[in-house]
Amino acid sequence: MNIAIIGYGAIGKHYIEQLKKFKNINKIYIIENNIIKNLDKKYSIIKFSDIKNKKIKIDYAIICTPSGSHFNHAKFFLEQKINTLIEKPFVLSVKDAKKLISIKKRNNIKCWVAFQNRYNLAITQAKKIIKSQKFGKPFFVDAALYWHRSKSYYSKSWRGKYKSDGGVLFNQSIHLLDIIVYFFGPISKFNAFAGFDRKKLEAEDLITINFVHNSKLISNLKATTRANRDYRMSLDILCRKGRFLIKDISLNKIFYFTKNHLKIDKNNSEFFKKGLGPKSGMGNGHLKILKEFLNKKVKKSSKNLDIEKNLYVIKLIHSIYNSIYSEKKFNVVKDKEFEYK
Fold first, then answer.
1. How far is CA 71 from CA 76, 85, 109, 327, in A?
2. Domain boundaries, position 126
3. Looking at the 3D structure of the chain, how many domains does it have?
């Protein structure tokens, strides 16, 4: 099979490292606008026109470009009837998401979004715990991401802008939001507050959201890239009979609260290096996605990564942004005493 990698940044390089583990790949092609120095000779740089003009046959495409480019790049491959995997978020616009879903269904091909953390052992174990109610029914979830992104990080023209990247919600904490919905289902109502550092970026770099799910469970999400360093990413789940915690750079470790201390479940935890990049905390999820995605016999994702099943998260983020900027949903403080009835 022949594979095209679109975008040769950190995530594109990470995919190439994972693809080295597959023996049935004939050729890996790279589409990249920037000059690539010291590229291994076994990889070839091509253009979109090479594919459109049928000069090169591509079986699978992997979109690793900035988020604002995902729609146009994915649309191109889907229209060529090429199976396509898109890095998160698969698009930034609800309209664009619906267009891609329509093309994907019409051409009967695979198009998945890479929410790789769903494949983590800790996430899989947590899903089983919630389903079995091992600790009783969950009633409250506390999710947090406290990271640092420097001014130089946002100096790239596309970063931190609503049309090309989004803020901390659409970029860094979308994995947390995804897992909250993946575990606990749709939201019936929410409220949200955001903070902005306009000297660094256009979009929000601080957000806090309270959710009430259709199941009546309450969850919240707190996220920022304003911290002076990376502190935590965590999902703390309180149940009627106990409590468990998922944390670390890729939500890759799971802990249980016992009577006397916090105990790690080593059998269902993975240990990744800190930091970003192709040899870091991206973990094992991308490899697991590729094993399914590149398998011709597999038509649908075992973890519901098909883009039509992930439209909801895009809609939810847009609803949150609309809520933040409308300010009509906030209750004002009134001089009226609460009376319990």
1. 9, 12, 16, 30
2. 121-281
3. 2
